[in-house]
Amino acid sequence: MTCCSTTCRKWTSFGFSLGFLVSGFLLIFGWKSLFDTITNYELSLRSGTFQYKAWLDPPVDIYMDLFPFNWTNVDEFRKSKVWVKPRLEETGPYTFSIRLSRDNVKFNDNGTVSYNTIRTYHFVPERSNGSMDDILTVLDPVQMTIASVLKDKHYLIQRGTHYFLRRFNLTLDLSTTIRQLSFEGVRHPAMDFAERLRLMKGYDIPYDKFGWFYTRNGSASFEGDYTSWTGEGDIRKAGIIDEWNHSKHSSSYTGECSRVDGSSGDVFHPVNDDPTFSLFQADFCGKVTLERNGSDTVDDIEGNLYISTDKMFDNGTKYPERACFNPPGVTVENGLRNLTLCQYHAPAFISLPHFYLGDASLREAIDGMHPDPDKHKMYFLLEPTLGVPLKAHIVFQANMKLYSVSPIDSFKSVQNTTIPMMWIRVNSGMPDNYGSLIKLSFVAPTIGVCIGYSFVVLSLFLCGCGVMLEIKMRKGEHSYYNYVTNLFSKGSFSVTPLTAADVMSNDNNSV
């Protein structure tokens, strides 16, 4: 006895055929759309998604290399009564690991998320060329800030400042450790003096020490309040900053330059064939824009290459639309961006390292500048369909402007010069397990469609099996009918009535 009759097998074949046929057409015509929907959901910055988890706990190690400039001809500068060109020597790198975390995360009803970013820094001696206790000599940033503020003040205020600086035997050079210049901070008498005499009235400086990264380490408030798009409804907006410090415009710039925009640098969006890529930087109170420059590959994955060009820090001469990055009435050399209004009126300027792509006069004013495109070019390599950063090389140089202020003797003979203080390099790459995931995302839509076609073929095969079983059943019934008919028609099978004698004979035989 068989476990399933021919009829059962027939309808089972037809049932599975229909199921595979429907599944096949769904995969062929709907799988790519479904896959894209799932991918976009996981790439959006929503609670529980792949992107959200990576944003809260980044899977890649981030390291910052610090290259301070040491002032090597300070003795010659002190002795001379005329201007002596500063000679600077690059030191380092001093390497720090960066751990990112988020605070005050709040999802908003308009598809944005508000948060604060916390960066925790740890010195990594095994990756560094020096220790945190190395002594560095720099032009005094605090005095340069005072000179910048006082350059347009009344003569009596300028002269009074001169006597203060002389009383404390302050000179233009400052020698201290990397530890103090970076995170610990330097307690400077000029800062107390400026505060007491209200020399900086109207310029509120929220620090009691000077340090390049003073109060930054582990602070949730240092970078300000971010609001960025989650990508819900439009994945192309994922990670784009919508507001910074509760405003869509930065007060440090004017016009289009003031608009808060660009990637947060922590969440990236698909760039497709975009000709530019913008990165918002709280330290600059605005964004920087890189230009598309072909493609490159990492681990056989092709990405769009975006690099820094002369347009990034143009002063408006070559690219008039960049002029709005300058404060009203102020013009700077090509290759610089004025951060005075962003950095509490300190004469701060940003550039690429060693004034790469900057005006030649910037390099000629300083000894020790050696721009190298391989080292000092900034770039991002982004996979276009997912926006995953395959490789990034982020570099910036922090500079301060030295101004001549005649009533202050220490600033009397100086020339207006942009002084490099340090440059920073942050390298990052694709996490090890991301390569296989990216490659899988490339072939998954094709695999789904191929499976769909396989299901259709299997459906046709099963349908054919059902048809064959139906034919077999019909042939079987027809043959049985013919067999019975033949028995009657050929006399091979006949019915003879029984007589009484036959019955009696049968009974006697049985007894």
TrEMBL record:
Membrane-spanning intervals of the chain: 12-31, 442-469
Keywords linked to the UniProt accession: Cell membrane, Glycoprotein, Membrane, Transmembrane, Transmembrane helix
Localization of this protein: Cell membrane
Keyword presence, Glycoprotein: yes
One CC-aspect GO term: plasma membrane
Recorded GO MF terms: scavenger receptor activity
Family: Belongs to the CD36 family.
Name of the protein this chain belongs to: Uncharacterized protein
